[in-house]
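Budget justification aside, the reviewers requested a transparent look at the raw inputs and outputs of the sequence design task funded under Objective 1. We therefore reproduce one unedited record. The lines immediately below are the structure tokens for a 467-residue chain.
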């Protein structure tokens, strides 16, 4: 362990990481709340399958824009200020989406929320990586994914309780509004807490050095790692920023070859593969999916909660492993596990039959599909779920970190949008077996991509990352 790691103020570090990762909770809650509101949205706005995809996917368009903008914006105004901006967007979106009286107003509100989710998704991992010692950076960065899944699970629980109390997601609830609107409005509570808590944590010391505010950086580093190491850390950071200009997108090109840096292609690749395996179909459409193969709305919402709970347990396992066995082995294990479990789901869906006009899984296929789906979620959340965000937060050199995160985040959310938008149509017109077959094939391809392209970052100081 380095001197910084031995002298670190872990209580203070844990506190600021806890505050920063509320953004992960909001990321998960804002993403998961849509799962359970779709019947209400379709009834209120009269949309088709493609229209449902647009209503669900509107968040993701905003996420792509927010992620791309936040990477560079965090270099201009600071990591903490971008997170505070995201928190304000969460509050606005939650109110607007719940109050929307037309599909377009709903899309606009969800787009605004997406800006916040995208900004938080790329800024929080960077912030955490920049305020934690290398020896425990993976474990603390993994807390972000735990909070994302906690947010998803929180949304599932809230949706279940509201729907059960009201008598259904479209039934009338408080003040005469249907339960699905309250599902959206409840987001304002954690969003407001997030905004208030962010005022209590310091700015990233690496951003402060970038802006020439060395004394402020020393003060923060002293609180984080001890006064004895603060001067040396500032010198190390400044050495890695040994250029005569502010970070910019053109830095993503290798000055020697004029081509995009290979490290950026690696970041884009792991960002895109994380979505091509179809994980957000389970989280965004889980209720609809399980109802489509014979489960009731109540049972489908309960299944969502179970999936969220096992996801949290899987992430906790990753906390114990990521700084011991490394990032790359976890990604490889996850790829093979997801490919196998998704293939089992393909077989189950291929045996579905129509009963009274409703798709159903006969015999034991329903149970097998449910077990396979939860094993798939476990494999994802032990590997690609947290590890992708950990690696994006730490794999890039200081000079290009903000810009590289902007591009990788854009790619991740663009892939997410494409998968989510296409699912309702693909499930109906192509069928669940072929749709999930694509996700299984993507999981298998991700194994070979990681083995060939991704480099291990375990235990390396951020100042030692090479581009």
């Amino acid at each position: 362990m380095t001197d910084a790691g031995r002298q670190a103020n872990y209580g203070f570090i844990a506190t600021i990481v806890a505050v920063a990762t509320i953004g992960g909770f909001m990321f998960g809650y804002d993403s998961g709340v849509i799962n359970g509101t779709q019947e209400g949205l379709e009834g209120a706005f009269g949309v088709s399958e493609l229209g449902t995809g647009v209503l669900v996917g509107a968040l993701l368009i905003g996420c792509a824009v927010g992620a791309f903008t936040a990477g560079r914006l965090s270099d201009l105004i600071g990591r903490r200020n971008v997170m505070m901006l995201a928190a304000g967007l969460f509050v606005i979106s939650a109110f607007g989406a719940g109050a929307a009286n037309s599909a377009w107003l709903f899309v606009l509100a969800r787009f605004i929320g997406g800006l916040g989710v995208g900004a938080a998704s790329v800024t929080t991992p960077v912030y955490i990586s920049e305020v934690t010692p290398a020896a425990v950076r993976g474990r603390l960065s993994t807390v972000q994914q735990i909070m994302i899944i906690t947010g998803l699970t929180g949304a599932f629980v809230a949706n279940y309780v509201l729907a059960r109390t009201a008598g259904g997601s479209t039934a009338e609830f408080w003040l005469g509004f249907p339960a699905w609107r309250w599902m959206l409005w409840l987001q304002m509570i954690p969003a407001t807490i997030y905004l208030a808590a962010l005022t209590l944590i310091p700015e990233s010391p690496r951003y402060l050095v970038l802006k020439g505010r060395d004394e402020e950086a020393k003060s923060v580093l002293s609180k984080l790692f001890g006064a004895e190491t603060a001067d040396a850390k500032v010198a190390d950071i400044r050495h890695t920023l040994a250029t005569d200009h502010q970070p910019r997108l053109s830095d993503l090109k290798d000055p020697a070859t004029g081509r995009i840096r290979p490290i950026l292609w690696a970041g884009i690749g792991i960002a895109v593969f994380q979505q091509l395996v179809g994980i957000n179909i389970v989280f965004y459409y889980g209720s609809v999916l399980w109802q489509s193969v014979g489960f009731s709305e109540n049972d489908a919402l309960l299944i969502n909660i179970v999936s969220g709970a096992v996801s949290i347990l899987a992430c906790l396992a990753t906390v114990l492993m990521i700084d011991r066995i490394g990032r790359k082995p976890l990604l490889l294990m996850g790829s093979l596990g997801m490919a196998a479990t998704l293939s089992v789901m393909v077989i189950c869906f291929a045996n579905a039959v129509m009963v009274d006009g409703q798709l159903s899984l006969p015999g034991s296929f329903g149970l097998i599909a449910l077990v396979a789906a939860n094993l798939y979620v476990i494999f994802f959340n032990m590997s690609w779920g947290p590890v992708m965000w950990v690696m994006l937060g730490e794999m890039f050199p200081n000079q290009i970190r903000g810009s590289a995160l902007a591009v990788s985040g854009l790619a991740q959310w663009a892939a997410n949008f494409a998968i989510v938008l296409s699912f309702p149509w693909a499930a109906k017109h192509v069928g669940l077996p072929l749709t999930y077959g694509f996700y299984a094939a993507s999981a298998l391809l991700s194994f070979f991509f990681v083995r060939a392209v991704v480099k291990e970052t375990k235990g390396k100081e951020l100042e030692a990352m090479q581009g």
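The mean pLDDT is 82. The longest helix spans residues 134-166. Computational costs for records of this kind are itemized in the attached budget.
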